[in-house]
Design brief:
mainly alpha
Length: 242
């Protein structure tokens, strides 16, 4: 019996690997950052306005305007960013296709050299390169040279809608809280709701990204509290002058 036949070949189910982990980080970045931006930016706006006036209509108008503008801005920014990344990936893949078509022998030697650089001996590196080239030359070169999966390129529309949706969901929390709670309690209720939401998104980002939950929660909550405090102080100061 060969050594390979006595070993269950494959990865651990509970351990992240490059392709799946990169996909997870992409949607995590768009979703969590969108939600965080919605929570913090709209909370800052409504608390700033609440510091300047007790008029519920003014707070509503400012909050809705911040929500709409922020959601569209997030969507546009993600679309441009991820679209540029996809354009670069497609350009690199086109270049690799051309090289494989025009000089396949040099490309085979290059692929074998890359595997040799990873620690395989020359003969084994060449054999691996030959087998992978025979199966899917473009995929083999794209993975090792470029870190790209030709069948799973980033989608700018997915990123745009994910960011816009996450921003909207996050923004609704401070907006609804400050509008629905009584005037005497709305500032403190909004701060409490935003703090809890930021703690949750910080914990989720660390959990799914395999990072430190304590650090992530502290960063999220600390940054949000500072932003709310500054905008509320500015709003209060302006309200006394206007």
């Amino acid at each position: 019996m060969s050594e390979a036949s006595s070993i269950d070949i494959g990865g651990h189910e509970d351990e992240p690997h490059e392709s799946a982990f990169n996909d997870r980080l992409n949607w995590l970045r768009a979703g969590v950052l969108g939600a965080n931006d919605g929570i913090v930016s709209v909370a800052g706006v409504v608390l700033g306005v609440a510091g300047a006036t007790t008029d519920r209509s003014a707070i509503l108008v400012a909050g809705v305007a911040a929500l709409v503008a922020g959601a569209l801005s997030m969507a546009a920014g993600e679309y441009v960013s991820v679209g540029t990344q996809r354009d670069s990936e497609e350009a690199l893949l086109d270049k690799e296709r051309r090289e494989l078509r025009e000089d396949p022998e040099d490309e085979l030697a290059e692929l074998a050299g890359l595997y040799a650089d990873k620690g395989l001996d020359d003969d084994l590196a060449l054999e691996v390169a030959k087998q992978l080239t025979a199966k899917d030359a473009l995929a083999a070169h794209a993975e090792v040279e470029l870190g790209i999966d030709p069948d799973d390129l980033t989608n700018p529309w997915n990123a745009a809608f994910a960011s816009m949706g996450a921003f909207t969901v996050g923004a609704l929390l401070p907006l609804l809280t400050i509008l629905l709670v009584s005037e005497e309690l709305r500032v403190w209720a909004t701060v409490a709701a935003v703090t809890a939401a930021l703690a949750l998104t910080g914990w989720l980002s660390a959990y799914f990204g395999y990072g430190s939950t304590t650090k992530a929660v502290a960063r999220n909550v600390g940054g949000g509290l500072v932003a709310m405090l500054v905008t509320y102080v500015v709003g209060t100061a302006l309200g006394t002058q206007v």
